[in-house]
Specification:
Elements: E1 8-14, H1 39-52, E2 58-61, H2 63-68, H3 70-78, E3 82-85, H4 98-116, E4 122-123, H5 136-144, E5 148-149, E6 179-180, E7 185-188, E8 191-194, H6 198-203, H7 206-219, E9 225-228, H8 245-252, H9 255-268, E10 271-272, H10 274-279
Parallel strand pairs: 1-2, 1-9, 1-10, 2-3, 4-5, 5-6
Antiparallel strand pairs: 7-8
């Protein structure tokens, strides 16, 4: 009997090009409102592509962006996508106290629910900043009413990562159904390699990502997660001056190829929202 290939979760982290963590040393938060904003137009383009391919996805949306683009939030919801939370102002959890974190996610969750008119059940930390040193964040997310987080990346990385974390969905809290759904990795030898999207997807040839998801779906019979950002399909975005070479390379590499690669991914695999893939069936 041939096994059915699992459905994967397609996700978008809705933030603008000037809000990425790599630029936080160069762009003051107080200047955000004075910069050309492109998150809305890029996300509308992504919604157009998803509609063309009949794909539903989860949009982890910054409260800051949602507040300034309520029509975008309404379109996400009206077209059957899942609205989820990316915090309010793209502050890493590692840079916040528990009280600050609680305040940030309550503000963002309330705002998104008011604009979208539906419960917001999912959260993703900016820069995957939940790891071994701040697992208290899961308790707060659960207390605030989130059903799941997708904030742990089981890799070793210079900016984030928890390489010893489980690779697939797990329940991090005792006596709670709250779930952590880690970003997808593929194991080569005894090491986890990132294959869930973002800069890695732009850096590696498309064939690597396709192979990795085939291993995850067909060999491991697991559902994967893919993520990307609206600014990644926008090669015309304003270029930042004075940033270091590593940040420039990571941010601008292959932006002109990204949309085409996303479309290939949409056609090569099956996709749905985080909630439909991971919350509708027992794990």
């Amino acid at each position: 009997m041939q096994l059915t290939s699992p459905v994967n979760a397609m996700t978008v982290d809705v933030e603008d090009y000037f809000q990425v963590s790599a630029f936080e040393k160069y762009i003051n938060r107080s200047d955000w409102d004075s910069l050309p904003q492109r998150a809305s137009q890029n996300t509308h383009r992504i919604l157009d592509v998803f509609a063309e391919h009949n794909i539903h996805a989860t949009f982890f949306t910054l409260g800051w962006v949602a507040e300034r683009n309520p029509d975008l939030v309404k379109r996400i919801v009206n077209e059957g996508h899942e609205l989820a939370c990316h915090g309010y102002a793209h502050q890493r959890v590692t840079d916040q106290t528990p009280a600050q974190f609680s305040s940030d996610i309550i503000k963002a969750k309330t705002l998104l629910e008011d604009l979208g008119g539906q419960a917001v059940n999912g959260y993703r930390a900016p820069s995957y900043s939940i790891g071994a040193k701040n697992l208290w964040a899961h308790d707060i997310l659960n207390e605030v009413g989130f059903l799941y987080s997708s904030s742990v990346y089981p890799v070793k990385h210079d900016l984030y990562g928890m390489p010893d974390a489980p690779r697939y969905i797990y329940q991090p809290l005792k006596n709670s159904q709250f779930k952590e759904i880690p970003i997808t990795t593929v194991t080569i030898g005894n090491k986890n390699f990132p294959c869930g999207g973002g800069g890695f997807f732009r850096f590696y040839p498309y064939a690597f990502s396709k192979w990795a998801f085939q291993v995850i779906n067909n060999k491991e019979q697991q559902s994967g997660i893919f993520y990307f950002h609206p600014w990644e399909i926008d090669p015309e975005q304003p270029r930042q001056k004075g940033i270091n070479l590593k940040s420039r390379f990571r941010h601008y590499l292959n932006l002109d190829k990204m949309e085409h690669r996303i479309i290939r991914l949409l056609t090569d695999f099956k996709w749905d929202t985080m909630a439909n893939v991971f919350l509708q069936k027992p794990h």
